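re: ur question from earlier - yeah i can do the single chain one, its not a big deal. heres the input i used so u can compare w yours
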Amino acid sequence: MSQQLLHTPEGVRDIYGREAAGKLSLEAGLREKIKSYGYEDIQTPTFEFFDVFSREVGTTPSRELYKFFDKEGNTLVLRPDFTPSIARCAAKYFMEEKVPIRLSYIGNTFTNTSNLQGKAKEVTQLGAELINDASVEADAEMISLVIEALKGTGLKKFQVSIGQVEYFKGICEEAGLDEETELDLRAFVSAKNYFAAQELLQERRVKEPYCSMLLKIADMFGDMCSLSEAKKLVRNKRSLDAIERLEKLYEVLKLYEVEDYISFDLGMLNKYHYYTGVIFRAYTYGVGDAVVKGGRYDALLSHFGKEAPAIGFVIVIDDILEALSRQKVDILLPPPKQVIAYTEENFPEKLKEARELRKQGQAAELVPEREYSHE
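and the output i got, formated as tokens:
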């Protein structure tokens, strides 16, 4: 037998024993918190038609998708992201619904990243989506839910950073940037790559004061004072409306009493281009990337035929587990199983004992006495 058969491909791994138990316990706690806000479960297929994640939708680049063909010749992909799948479902099953729809899901996503990036190619994500509600109160509900969910895991030190895509787009529109330049600049600003952004703006001959304004966005982060400074910088209505939305959002978040976990970052621009307004990420120490990512995507459902605003988030379970481990936070695990050794003669009474324990919610394992004593 080839030894290669015992190993997993790069970017994926097995999870078993106490780690698997901890992961399931973490997932159960997070799902319980999300359900307490009124969200209902939904399950989507592991693979979808390629067009659900196409360039037009604004999701994962094609080169990072796991693509294959069915017998009819259709191009299929393993889902890299849940949100487009949920948008498709909402358009299919709730086309005529006008009331808010709250959906929650859990499952694995697959991204064909380079081995050099050091990222897992298969991760477990748990998330929630609120559809048919364009209000600032909906924004606040999602962000407060993220904070309460993270607090429930045992994490004590984390921060939710909030941005607004429309602020950046308003300046780009006023400066007359074409779509290609805007997307390139968006990537540089989001990565805090000041020099690359400056070089791009000079190359595309973007005039002042817009060049300076766009470069300053990368440094616009902090508390409410940073929003005040950002507001003074612009004159266009689109950007001003974005700041006012964040100001209103902060007032609602104070009602949830979660403002201590909040900061603002107008240079945070998600790689998923379907985001249209408020976006947010949660960070904690011990993990290099955001453990939660989310935002508003008011135009995404229109790709599937339904005009509806929406906002959602995903919690990356694997990253939360890593953060908890590095911060030495114990996950609540079920009590250890009771091992009951039996012989052929006493099996009936030992079976009765095991069944009684199981009725009480205690795991009980029956083991032949000769095997148990051998251990």
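The two ends are 28 Å apart (CA to CA). not sure if urs matches, ping me
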